[in-house]
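Title: Prediction job returns without error message
Component: structure pipeline
Severity: low
Priority: P3
Assignee: unassigned

Description:
Job completed but the reporter wants confirmation the result is attached to the right record. Sequence as submitted:
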Amino acid sequence: MLGHDLVRVFEESRHEVLKPAHSHLDIADSQSAQKYIAEHRPEWVVLSAAYTRVDDCESNRDLAMKVNAEGAANVARACKEAEAKMVYVSTDYVFQGDVNAPCREDDPTDPINVYGASKLAGENYVREIVPHHLIIRTAWLYGLNGNNFVEAILKKAGEVSELKVVNDQQGSPTNTRDLAEGIARLIGKNAQGVVNVTNTESCTWFEFAKNILSLKQIEGVEVLPVSTAEFNAPAKRPAYSILSPEKYVGITGQPLRPWKDALKFYMTARKN
């Protein structure tokens, strides 16, 4: 999802964009990463590839670490050799989520699932290896080119009359088009370090689902709030992982739009 939107945004702003398929650049293969980046010598490398199936990561820890941590290290070493600047896309799941205040970039990290741990390990590799790095922490992504929560809710709503959705996790749903634009703005400012980038304002997954069905004008489907404990997913999730936009606004001069506006945009942009 994010990769497609990054390509669109950079091409629209007249950048020369490389968009290697997995067959051309396998981040889990150090030689593949080194060869591709050395050959093309880009000014910036944005690593949007990741193993993002949070629940699957719990039973596939080795694969999660190979892609999200070691893969990031492979790309980082190639960037250092080619003197390229690197963007690494990370997650709100690096936080435990037990503090009811927006997470700032310098707050202590303490992931409670394998996915968060693998992404934090990737962050650390990038910090250590690449002199000019930009680590983007984001959350709850959905976009036009991939499976996501919005599409899952709409699919389920066409199959059942009752949906149970978690109502005790707070976050900021983020449209990948908006995230891509935010990343482009930061690159334009030659930003470095860790920066939170999400759509503004927040909700629970339950509230998110209700808004999705309302915008699609779907009736006859009851959405019921349930607790995280009742839902019983394999991976633990932070109860509160809202990311503070303060640093991003300080660099770019503007926040991303509120999540409800971004969702309306997405629903209009969908093909059906």
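Comment from assignee: result matches the submitted record. The first helix runs from residue 2 to 12.
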